[in-house]
Amino acid sequence: MTALAIDIGGTKILVALVKDGHVQDWTRGPTDFSGGPADWLDTAAHLAKPWQGQYRTLGIAVTGRVDRSGSWSALNAGTLGIPPNTPLRDMAQDRFPHPVALANDAQAAAWGEYFGNAEADRVRDMVFLTISTGIGGGIVANGRLRTGRSGLAGHFGQIWSDGQPFEARAAGRWLAEEADRTGHRTDAEGVFAAAEMGEDWAVALRGQAVARIARLTADIQMTLDPDRIVLGGGIGLAPGFLAAVEEAQRHLARDLRPMLVAARLGAFAGVVGIADLAERTNALQTETTS
């Protein structure tokens, strides 16, 4: 079955046709930060218009929190200014003629990384951690995606550490701010490039990010003890980053050390995951009504 999958993030809106876990076609446009949910959904509908009639299910993954009623709220308004309790499900139904499955984008990406590889890898419990501008995540336990009572499960970047959210001390926005304080106006990618060239200020910043992610993943391992922790996002997949985190954990006893692996789907993890969740939701609704 073919699904229309939409991923609304802080900087881009990705729209794709997905069939059996494979992206058949895709397009994207910018997220207008000055706009609002209606504008972002209108952009998604416009991008998907050429595929009208080619899909039977719909899934939307979004940054922020989505609860069981289909309401959407921001956890970090700096990423995207989502008004509290935005009726995302109802707004989507006004624009698309299909029932919609909703999920946080990192939770959807966690499911995308899991379901395509779980059988071959014999994994039942997995944590996905995306490290980019901020830090998000998702949890799969005993083969099921966990979203929690209020849609908060896996939001590791919002765990408070030293008086502020953890992502405020380890993610891309923090790297850019710290670089600026040292007189280097650049982003996280620029920091990592400078570190590769041996510039002391950048090596120090990268080292701090590595040490903090090493601590976070070790804490996740102690709390949930998953079979593996998958790292994604621009920083998580940066050359040498995963290996550096592993090296920082070398002092831990083997049984306490997380198994870290790189995400395989890259930017498409969210749309692949939400497409599968949409198909499962549609199948369950069909069984219930038949």
UniProtKB/TrEMBL annotation:
UniProt keyword Secreted present: no
Pfam (any one): ROK
Swiss-Prot/TrEMBL keywords: Kinase, Transferase
A GO term for molecular function: N-acylmannosamine kinase activity
GO biological process: one example: N-acetylneuraminate catabolic process
InterPro entries linked to this entry: ATPase_NBD, ROK
Gene3D superfamilies: 3.30.420.40
Presence of keyword Cell membrane: no
Protein name, per record: N-acylmannosamine kinase/N-acetylmannosamine-6-phosphate 2-epimerase/N-acetylmannosamine kinase
